[in-house]
């Protein structure tokens, strides 16, 4: 089977059977906006928590350099 046979015979049959049960309901999108918003807020909270942990770990593990010799300036 060559590519041209696939593109002209099998692909249109597959696509027509794939889209035969396709239905579009715009109000379903509007109804699901609250779930998408909740998911976005949860993602934002997780990102803020990760940033806070990284900043906290950086402050805890950073060693303070004591420079008694300021004559190097």
Walkthrough of the structure:
There is one protein chain. The protein has three helices and no strands. The model has no long low-confidence stretch (mean pLDDT 83). The protein starts with a helix and ends in a 12-residue tail after the last helix. It has helices at residues 3-18, 26-31, 33-61. 0% of the residues are buried. With 73 residues, it is an all-alpha fold.
Strand content: under 5%
Unreliable segments of 5+ consecutive residues: none
Round the Cα radius of gyration to an integer and report it: 29 Å
Structural class: mainly alpha
Main pleated sheet: none
Total strand segments: 0
**Terminal Cα span:** 78 Å
Supply the key terms.
73 residues; mainly alpha; 3 helices; elongated
Set out the fold topology.
Elements: H1 3-18, H2 26-31, H3 33-61
Short description:
With 73 residues, the protein is an all-alpha fold. It has three helices and no strands.
């Amino acid at each position: 089977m060559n590519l041209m046979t696939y593109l002209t015979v099998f692909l249109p049959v597959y696509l027509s059977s794939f889209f035969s049960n396709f239905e579009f309901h715009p109000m379903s999108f509007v109804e699901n906006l609250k779930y998408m918003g909740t998911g976005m807020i949860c993602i934002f909270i997780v990102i803020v928590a990760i940033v806070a942990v990284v900043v906290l770990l950086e402050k805890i593990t950073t060693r303070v350099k004591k420079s008694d010799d300021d004559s190097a300036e």
